[in-house]
Specification:
This protein is mainly alpha-helical. It contains 10 helices and 2 strands, in the order E-E-H-H-H-H-H-H-H-H-H-H. It has a two-stranded antiparallel ribbon with strand order 1-2. Strand 1 and strand 2 form a beta hairpin. Helix 2 crosses helix 4, helix 4 packs across helix 10 and helix 9 packs antiparallel against helix 10. It is elongated and about 55 Å long. The protein starts with 11 loop residues before the first strand and ends with a helix.
Length: 272
Amino acid sequence: MSVVPAQVLPGAAAVDGGFQDAAALGPRARLWPSLAAVYRAQLSRARVARIPLLFVATFQSVGIMIMMRGVVNGGADARSVVAGSSVLVVAYVGLNLLAQYFGQLRGSGGLDHYATLPVPAAAVVLGAAGAYASFTVPGTVVTAVFGSALFGLPLAHLWVLVAVIPLAGAALSGLGAALGLLAPRPELATLLGQLGMSAALLLGVLPAHRMPEAVRFARDLLPSTYGVEALARTFANRPDWASVLGDLGVCAAVGVASLALATWAYRRAAVR
C-alpha cells in the first residue's frame, strides 16, 4: 500500500495548517432563486385544483354582502362589511386552504420530498404562501368592487388593495402554514383552518362597535383585522392615511412573525 501526500490530492485546500476537500460539497442554494422555483412550481400545481375553490370564496363573500345589505344601509358599518368581506377571500385561501395543504403534506410524508431538495426552508414556506396568496387577487378585487357598488362606497382609493392583499396574505398564509405544520394530524389541521376562517368571517365582517368588549379584544389579535381596518378607512370621504399606514405596518409585522413561525414549524416537521 502506498501513501499519497494530502498536498497532491485534487481539490485539497489548506485550512489552519491542515487540508480539507473543497470539492466535497456543492454550493448552497440561494434563497431568492429557490423561492422563485418553489413559487412557480406551487403556482402551476395549484392552478387547476384551487381555481374552483377561489370561485367559492368569492361567491361566499359576495353572498355575505348581499345578506348584510338588508340590515346595513351605509356609513361606517357598510365600510366594515365590504372591507371584511374582501379580506375574507384572502383568509379562505391563505389560511384555510394552506393549513389543509401543509397538514396533508405532513400526514402523507410529502415533506420528505422537500427535505431532500437543496432549498432553504424559508423558500418552501414563502413559495407556497406566495402562490396561494396570488390566487386571492382576482377574487378580492371583484368582491371589493362589487361591495362598493352595492353599498354606494367610493372606488377612488381601491388601489390600496395593492398593499392590503400581499400584507394580509402574508400574515394569514403564514398562520395557515404554521397551523398545518404544527397540527399532529391532517384532520386537525383542516379543523384549525376552518376555525381560523370562521374567526376571520365573524370578527372581520361584523362592525366592531357592535361587538362586546371581550370579542373586540379577540378581534385585535386576529392578523386579518388590520388589513380590514386599513381598507375600511380608505372608503371614507377623507381617509386618515396615517392610520391606514399604521394598520398596514402592523399587518406587515404580523406577516413577518407568522412566516417566521411557519418556517420554524417546517424545519421542526421535516426532521421528524
